[in-house]
Amino acid sequence: MKHLLATDGLDAETATAVLDTADELKHTLLGREVKKLPTLRGRTVITLFYENSTRTRVSFEIAGKWMSADVVNVSASSSSVNKGESLRDTALTLAAAGADCVIVRHPASGAAHRLSGWLAEAGTSVVNAGDGTHEHPTQALLDAATLRERLGSLKDRRIAIVGDVVHSRVARSNIHLLHTLGAEVVLVAPPTLLPVGVEKLPVTVSHDLDAELPAVDAVMMLRVQAERMYGGFFPSAREYSISYGLSERRQALLPDHAVVLHPGPMLRGMEIAHAVADSPASAVTEQVRNGVHVRMAVLYHLLASEGAAA
Amino acid sequence: MTLVIKGARPYGEGEPVDVLVEDGVITSIGSVKVPEGAEVLDAAGQVLLPGFVDLHTHLREPGREDTETIDSGSAAAALGGYTAVFAMANTDPVADNALVTDHVWRRGQEVGLVDVHPVGAVTVGLNGAKLAELGTMAKGTAGVRVFSDDGVCVADPLLMRRALEYSTALDAVIAQHAEEPRLTVGAQAHEGEQASRLGYPGWPASAEESIVARDCLLALHANARLHVCHVSTAGTVDVLRWAKDRGTKVSAEVTPHHLLLTDDRLDTYDPVNKVNPPLRTGRDAEKLRAALAEGVVDCVATDHAPHAPQDKDTEWNAARPGMLGLQTALSVVVETMVKTGLLDWRGVARVLSERPAEIGNLPDHGRRIAVGEPANLALVDPDAEWTVRGAELASIAANTPYEGMRLPGVVTATVLRGRITAREGKIR
């Protein structure tokens, strides 16, 4: 694996290898006082974030540091980007400075792919940490890791992805990865928050959350991305909450074993009830914890395990 | 100045003939004895067509001479078989007054490779708020007959109505970039399966179709001439057919890239494929080709849009929309329309020359190849192929989506008023 740009096209074997490595890393570090492995000593990892982020950037930073990589954080607001430097020039600068891997978050869909092209000559790996409304592959991998822990195999499991699908890179990455790993995905959202041509994706579509909940093994709530919205995608937060929020009443419709996920940050009270978010069914904290191990595994497969996967 | 074109087949039909051109006018067709001192174009096996006319060119001068100038753009046009081009108004400063339009016209004359006809802006500064001085531009040296805010739709229906009404007194046409702006906020690609998969905010087909429908109704109401720029959707073809059947004075153009390319190319994430309106689906392209063959879409226009590397070799959202078109248009038309049997060479003359000249009101271009007609001509080798290399094109910019592609049909010579402007890929 040279880059991790998307889950669309990521084969089951590679995805499973990353998840297995994450699992192994998690158990290796379990109970250790000093969480440090020498695996990536001497490697330089740069996080290049053009959008605000806490959990993803910190997660990657910790992942790199636990693997003994030198991690440098660059945020657009405090770099030459602020002076109008293009993404291409910034990328070439980072490669010239010796980056082995650039982890990029960018508001433009496809930015990570473009970056990988510009960095091809330098041999620098690229990890997509979220590009526009396209993909966020490590989020999908950490979601899958969390679901595997709770449910075992994902084969033939039914997962509902609920809410703002159209603006969600998390949803896109999850749709592809969950399908690849054998799960069945149902999207539950108002028509305005579903992508055009959604029927061509490997999913079923529903507008009735109540009807879907009793038959799912997990429900993945999405963040309503108000910052990407214009022109009234739904009438009001209240109506959205009534129709698509995961309330305590709705949670009661879920099977006992069902897992509740949310990529965060959560809009409590609107997307998900406070009590549901903190309930035993909720795996939100585990998602964050697993995120570090999954990102360690991704860095391992990119930087430490030449030829580990194609 | 005397020119003899030896052994060409006008419109690719009949036996080869010689064409004698004297002082810019065709004076004899048949077997011609070469007069002393005459220049000779050996055109054996080649198709002779009226010189092409592009209703939709961006020459970028004034304002972005780093990407194209009237000089370089004229050269690209001549090499592409064009004898006249309409230079769009979205320059800097905007061509919304006679000072700018007359300047563009004069520069075109000075360069002398093609007739450069400036398009005047419909509204001041292309801002859609106030009509530009259409009459002044029409009565100026340039004699502007096509007005457009291209790149920006005249979205206000009342302003569009007024523009259409006002233009009737000027024997002019209002050319509209049909894009309902509220439906395309943030749009980056054709709204459909591909854009959804890649996470690009969608540019819905209905944003074009709804404006075309509205404008056709307004043009019918005002008895004015409307020209629809770069039609891109199957639905727009239906609207145009309906409007024409009702007697609307509406014409329409399609770009070569909308005939050949589809949103499948978005998979590369390369903004060389970013264009406005966006590349649509295969079904749209198929319907556009059929509509062009049938005449529901009147002509091909390039929307030649040169851009600097820093405006294209970037992430998709940051990239400017547009692609080069002048030197590849004929080949793409051959690939999509001639090789498929949708058009013969007479049809090619109609869509690349005759109809655009009529729409743009150019009496000396797009004429029949006949004695007494002005010698604005293009010679095409129908059997030759070439490989497109952006860096080798005459434009300053190199943003061609056909890089490395092998295309059929080579323009071997272009003649403007009896003078060879381009021959064997070189400017004369």
TrEMBL record, chain A:
GO molecular function, one term: amino acid binding
Entry EC no(s): 2.1.3.2
Swiss-Prot/TrEMBL keywords: Pyrimidine biosynthesis, Transferase
Name of this protein: Aspartate carbamoyltransferase
Organism: Amycolatopsis jiangsuensis
Similarity comment text for this entry: Belongs to the aspartate/ornithine carbamoyltransferase superfamily. ATCase family.
InterPro entries the UniProt entry points to: Asp/Orn_carbamoyltranf_P-bd, Asp/Orn_carbamoylTrfase, Asp/Orn_carbamoylTrfase_sf, Asp_carbamoyltransf, Asp_carbamoyltransf_Asp/Orn-bd
Entry GO terms, CC: cytosol
EC category: transferase
Automatic annotation (TrEMBL), chain B:
Gene Ontology MF, one: allantoinase activity
Gene: pyrC
Domain of life from the UniProt record: Bacteria
PROSITE patterns assigned to the protein according to its UniProt record, in alphabetical order: DIHYDROOROTASE_2 (PS00483)
HAMAP family attached to this UniProt entry: PyrC_classI_B
Alphabetized InterPro entries for the sequence: DHOase (IPR004722), DHOase/Allantoinase_Hydrolase (IPR050138), DHOase_cat (IPR024403), Dihydroorotase_CS (IPR002195), Metal-dep_hydrolase_composite (IPR011059), Metal_Hydrolase (IPR032466)
Cross-referenced CDD domains: DHOase_IIa (cd01317)
A GO CC term attached to the entry: cytoplasm
Catalytic reactions of this protein: (S)-dihydroorotate + H2O = N-carbamoyl-L-aspartate + H(+)
The organism of origin for this protein: Amycolatopsis jiangsuensis
Signal peptide: none
Function: Catalyzes the reversible cyclization of carbamoyl aspartate to dihydroorotate.
UniProt binding sites for substrate: 58-60, 90, 276, 307, 321-322
Pathway(s) where this gene product acts: Pyrimidine metabolism; UMP biosynthesis via de novo pathway; (S)-dihydroorotate from bicarbonate: step 3/3
UniProt-recorded name of the protein: Dihydroorotase
Residues annotated to bind Zn(2+) 1: 56, 58, 150, 303
Residues the entry annotates as binding Zn(2+) 2: 150, 177, 230
